[in-house]
Amino acid sequence: MVKICCLGAGYVGGPTMAVIAVKCPDVEVVVVDISTARIDAWNSDTLPIYEPGLDDVVRRCRGRNLFFSTDVEKHVDEADIVFVSVNTPTKTRGLGAGKAADLTYWESAARMIAGVARSDKVVVEKSTVPVKTAEAIEKILNHNGRDGVGFQILSNPEFLAEGTAIQDLFSPDRVLIGGRETPGGRRAVQALKDVYARWVPEERILTTNLWSAELSKLAANAFLAQRISSVNAMSALCEATGADVAEVAYAVGKDSRIGAKFLNASVGFGGSCFQKDILNLVYICECNGLPEVANYWKQVIKINDYQKSRFVNRVVSSMFNTVAGKKIAVLGFAFKKDTGDTRETPAIDVCKGLLGDKAKVSIYDPQVTEDQIQRDLSMSKFDWDHPVHLQPMSPTAIKQVFVAWDAYEAAKDAHGICILTEWDEFKNLDYARIYGSMQKPAFVFDGRNVVDSEKLREIGFIVYSIGKPLDAWLKDMPVVA
Ligand SMILES: NC(=O)c1ccc[n+]([C@@H]2O[C@H](COP(=O)([O-])OP(=O)(O)OC[C@H]3O[C@@H](n4cnc5c(N)ncnc54)[C@H](O)[C@@H]3O)[C@@H](O)[C@H]2O)c1
Ligand SMILES: O=c1ccn([C@@H]2O[C@H](COP(=O)(O)OP(=O)(O)O[C@H]3O[C@H](CO)[C@@H](O)[C@H](O)[C@H]3O)[C@@H](O)[C@H]2O)c(=O)[nH]1
């Protein structure tokens, strides 16, 4: 029986391994982590992450051929294939701070694998890493491993998106495997290919050299984020000219060379990957003497930051240039719908912007806890991407932040509502009831273009929707910087 061990029971390690286990009943899969709390949660009825369909997959194979454990060394030693899916945060100190990937967790994982392995291993990079990481990992494994124990390193980046992870894993657009072009390297690629081939059609399993696989992951995320920044840049111009960004995106996306997906204007992209991976790409370009290329990709992040601050400015300027002491309801805190993940969510920057202008912020999200919101609003930049048990403990709660149990409570007595996540339930709220409970004039700032703005205007709201023709009220307000 082939044995697989995965280091890191997070958003990638957990769902990915659960799907491998369910698709390969004759393979034993053990997911291990240094966080006992995370492993306990994976072994309980309340999984540590919210992902549609995940509970069902885990229930089908946990205890059969899928196991979660903190006994890291034992399971690494017993495995034939070791996936490494640990955090690769942005460095906050020293060389490359604010851009380069921090490979501390990866390096310690590699040293541990080298120290405990008593038989040959295929070590698979599942985390997103800088190009050439495999070379560094190979050196660590080969210099620290026992005599006679061989390692083959593969790059197998993950392309799942949160909220649709199970669907993406069951039916991926492609699986990418990079390996050494040596007989040993080819055998390792084939061993991993055999696992995926149980459910992924052969033509969707791409094999490349190691560096192409590592770089393709960064490139794919940069291209995706670039589309969002492109449509968001257009949204600002739409507001200035009376064009409608949805109509523009539809017309542009109808060109089959461009395609319709990933062109939804928004308050900005979030999530643990896009910004981190582009910063990483920028740093690699700079290190390779390519400042023009680095600057090109930096713009994707700059436009994203601009979009978030533009949104905050719009809120404040619409409300007579001050939100001091005013209650603002924030509907949605997760970085997208169908996840409880808040890493790099635009809601953090928007809330901080409103708090900076002394607003009282009342937040509702169906999947995010009060503790998480308070932590997110008080944590330093990039601290969020370290293992939870290593993050700063119990920050002081921010007094002007309130967390509500539903949208109606959040909006009661508020002067304005900001919709920051596109949860389906926000489309069908009783907005007449909400209007009745709010201060007047009552504003809705739709950062995800989910509400029917005409209906809301009929109720009496002043509505701002990203990239849509402006309400007369908003047009008369001072120009937004
Ligand atoms: N989240 C996504 O949608 C996504 C998608 C594709 C790729 N990625 C990449 O995958 C990697 C993991 O991301 P994630 O979202 O799953 O992160 P995560 O924080 O949810 O999970 C990482 C886990 O690794 C554990 N860990 C850290 N060091 C360890 C060690 N030495 N041994 C065992 N466990 C260890 C942590 O405790 C944590 O539970 C990152 O490189 C990320 O960029 C993420
Ligand atoms: O048209 C769009 C599409 C997305 N978003 C936003 O972009 C962010 C990222 O969304 P998405 O890409 O769907 O989720 P992630 O889970 O971050 O997935 C991305 O990042 C992962 C981690 O690397 C990759 O594996 C995935 O392929 C890649 O889509 C979210 O804030 C979305 O709201 C928009 O604003 N407009």
UniProtKB/TrEMBL annotation:
- Report any one BP term from Gene Ontology: UDP-glucuronate biosynthetic process
Can you list the GO cellular component terms from the UniProt entry?
nucleus
Gene3D superfamilies in the record = Cytochrome c1, transmembrane anchor, C-terminal (1.20.5.100), NAD(P)-binding Rossmann-like Domain (3.40.50.720)
Query: Broadest EC class?
Result: oxidoreductase
- Cited InterPro entries: 6-PGluconate_DH-like_C_sf, NAD(P)-bd_dom_sf, UDP-Glc/GDP-Man, UDP-Glc/GDP-Man_DH_C, UDP-Glc/GDP-Man_DH_C_sf, UDP-Glc/GDP-Man_DH_dimer, UDP-Glc/GDP-Man_DH_N, UDPglc_DH_euk
**Protein EC:** 1.1.1.22
Q: Which residues form the active site?
A: 273 (nucleophile)
Residue numbers binding NAD(+): 8-13, 33, 38, 86-90, 127-128, 162, 273-276, 343
Pathway linked to the protein: Nucleotide-sugar biosynthesis; UDP-alpha-D-glucuronate biosynthesis; UDP-alpha-D-glucuronate from UDP-alpha-D-glucose: step 1/1
Q: Could you tell me which SUPFAM superfamilies the record lists for this protein?
A: 6-phosphogluconate dehydrogenase C-terminal domain-like (SSF48179), NAD(P)-binding Rossmann-fold domains (SSF51735), UDP-glucose/GDP-mannose dehydrogenase C-terminal domain (SSF52413)
Q: Which Pfam families match?
A: UDPG_MGDP_dh, UDPG_MGDP_dh_C, UDPG_MGDP_dh_N
**Every UDP-glucose/GDP-mannose dehydrogenase C-terminal domain range:** 329-453
Sorted alphabetically, which keywords does the UniProt record give? NAD, Oxidoreductase, Phosphoprotein
Reactions catalysed, as given in the entry = UDP-alpha-D-glucose + 2 NAD(+) + H2O = UDP-alpha-D-glucuronate + 2 NADH + 3 H(+)
Q: Name one GO molecular function term.
A: UDP-glucose 6-dehydrogenase activity
Q: Which PANTHER family match?
A: UDP-GLUCOSE 6-DEHYDROGENASE 1, UDP-GLUCOSE DEHYDROGENASE/UDP-MANNAC DEHYDROGENASE
Q: Which family does it belong to?
A: Belongs to the UDP-glucose/GDP-mannose dehydrogenase family.
| Entry function | Involved in the biosynthesis of UDP-glucuronic acid (UDP-GlcA), providing nucleotide sugars for cell-wall polymers.
How is this protein named in the record?
Answer: UDP-glucose 6-dehydrogenase
- State the species of origin: Oryza punctata (Red rice)
Its taxonomic path starts at: Eukaryota, Viridiplantae, Streptophyta, Embryophyta, Tracheophyta
